[in-house]
Structures are given as structure tokens and as C-alpha cells.
Amino acid sequence: MRATRKSNGGFTLIELILVMAMLVVVLAISAPSLGNFFRGRSLESEARQMLSLTHYAQSRASSEGAPMIVWIDAKAGAYGLQMDAGYSDGVDPKAVEYKIGEDLKLEVMPAAKMQTRPSTLNLPVLRFLPDGGISEQSAPGVVLTHAKGDMLWLVQGRTGLTYEIRDEETIGQIGMR
Fold it and tell me: Is residue 6 part of a domain?
């Protein structure tokens, strides 16, 4: 008597085609949601990077005992950090500059006594004093806008000692609309 063996080692072609079809349907449904997720992340990432730069500027101002400025060039879509011109002997070796994404736009919120960057560019600045405080001549905030209309604000916090990120839901709480 001979025993017959059944092979259970693989998938049939029909099973593989059905699995692939289900994957295509799931990807087609989730693709628009993923697009919105990544769009929001680029805006949020840029805002967090700018917030981090303000923290670094504040820390540098305190540790080096010299005013630091975060300058904003809205037309060029760039921002950066450097020591205040009156306190450096030429070029700041620790100066940094960043470009925003092509789908983002920067706008500076105007202030009555806003100081400009000490150069021929005359750019608005966020100025941090050697004691770590924010100068009264600093811009009150920056608006980051995505091409699709989403917005985030980098504004002075309630205490006036730091900057913080606000969204459309929380910006009205400080009267900056």
C-alpha cells in the first residue's frame, strides 16, 4: 500500500492575484490621507526648526553675553541666526541660515518698534538679549503658511520670555488673528 502525500507548501496564482488586488485597493484609499499627513508634517517640522533656533539664540545670548538675532527674509524664504553686528568683529563663525520648503511661505508679524537686521538687507529680527530675554524691538511673531492654506504661528509666549508655536485654534487666545 502506497501512501499519497498532499503538498501544502505554497500559494496558488489566484491567491496571489487576490492579495495583490487587495493591496492596490488599500493603497488607493489611503494615498490622499498620507498626502495630507506629509504636507502637515513639513509645515510642523519647519515651525519646530524655527522654534528650536529661537531657543538656541536665547541660549547663545546668555552663554556668550552678547545679543543674538534671528533674522527673517520672507522674500527669499530664508531665516537664520547670527550675533548682533555691534558685538561681533566681522563674521560670526557660529551663524546659521536655513531655507524653507518651496511649498511654504514666511510672513513676519509687524510691531510698532521692530528693529531691522543691522545690514543692508534691513530684515526684521527676533532679538535676544544677553540676559536671555526678548528685546522689545523684536517682531512679535512669524506666520508659516503652506501652499494648501494651513498656517502655524511662532509667537511670543504668554510670559514674553520665549516663543511658542500656535495653530489656528489657539492663536485667537492671545489676540493675534
Answer: no
CA dist., res. 85 & res. 15, Å (int): 70
CA distance 73 to 80: 9
Residue 28 belongs to domain with CATH number: 3.55.40.10
How, if at all, do strands 104-109 and 141-146 pair? antiparallel
7 inside domain: no
Q: Can you tell me the distance from the alpha carbon of 30 to that of 44, in angstroms, rounded to the nearest whole number?
A: 21
Does 8 fall in a domain? no
pLDDT tens digit sequence for 83-102 = 987 776 778 888 999 999 88
Each residue's pLDDT tens digit, 21-39: 999 999 888 877 776 666 5
Q: Nine-digit cell at 31? A: 494615498
Assigned C-alpha cell, 52: 528650536
C-alpha cell at 40: 502637515
Amino acid at site 126: L
Residue whose entry in the numeric block shows the C-alpha cell 527676533: 126
Q: CA-to-CA distance for 167 and 145, rounded, in angstroms? A: 11
Distance CA(65)–CA(87), nearest Å, equals 9
Number of CB atoms found within 10 A of residue 37's CB: 10
Residue 3, in any domain of the structure: no
Domain count within the chain: 1
Q: Which domain holds residue 106?
A: 14-174
